[in-house]
Amino acid sequence: MTAIIDGKATAAAIKAEIAEKVAARKAAGLKVPHLAAILVGHDGGSETYVASKVKACEECGFKSSLIRFESTDEAPLDPAVLMAEIARLNADDDVDGFIVQLPLPRHIDEQAVIEAIDPAKDVDGFHPVNVGRQSVGLPCFHSATPAGIVELLRRYNISPAGRRVVIVGRSNIVGKPLAAMLMQKGEGADATVTVCHSHTPELARVTRQADILVAAMGRPGFITADMVSEGAVVIDVGTTRVPDATRKSGFRLRGDVDYENVAPKCAAITPVPGGVGPMTIVSLMLNTLQAAQNRD
Ligand code: GUN
Question: How far apart are the C-alpha atoms of 218 and 237, rounded to whole Å?
Answer without folding.
Answer: 8
